[in-house]
Amino acid sequence: MTERGKIREIKGKLITIAPDFSDACFGCMKMECKTSGGILNAENIRALPLKIGQTVELISPEKSILGQSVIAILPPALGFLLGLFLTRLFFPDTTEETAVFIGVIILFLTAFIVYKIRKKFPAKEHVRYVERILA
């Protein structure tokens, strides 16, 4: 995932950046950026010659994105399979459509539970890296 922003402060390798809100962000529809004031922290691991006011492009580590994706997708999928399996186990005469319907209900229930847990215990902010200087 890449993001753009202007450098506001530089403290060694730690950079404070104000994100560019003109970019389309479909992840949270800019709700998280607006509530946190839009300040991003990044590291300058490439030792680029950065100055305050420059526009830079940031990248997020793939490992962090993959971990968050697994946490968001795996529990609902397992909830669906569990609902399907338990319906067939406890009600063997049930039609396939009914078993799938119950699986879908448990899928949405599991997704809602994951959502509520994430609202109460948000994922820790991952470190972004300055990829390149744009202007």
Notes on the protein architecture:
There is one protein chain. This protein has three helices and five strands. The chain is an alpha+beta fold and 135 residues long. The protein has two domains: 69 residues, OB fold (Dihydrolipoamide Acetyltransferase, E2P) (Beta Barrel), CATH 2.40.50; 58 residues, no CATH class. Helix 2 packs across helix 3.
Basic shape: rod-shaped
User: What's the CATH topology name of the largest domain?
Assistant: OB fold (Dihydrolipoamide Acetyltransferase, E2P)
Number of helices: 3
Q: How many domains make up the 3D coordinates?
A: 2
Average residue pLDDT: 83
Strand content: 15-25%
Describe the strand arrangement of the main beta sheet, using strand numbers.
1-2-3-5-4
| Portion in helices | 40-55%
- The CATH class assignment of the largest domain is Mainly Beta
What is the SS-derived class?
alpha+beta
Largest sheet: 5 strands, mixed, barrel
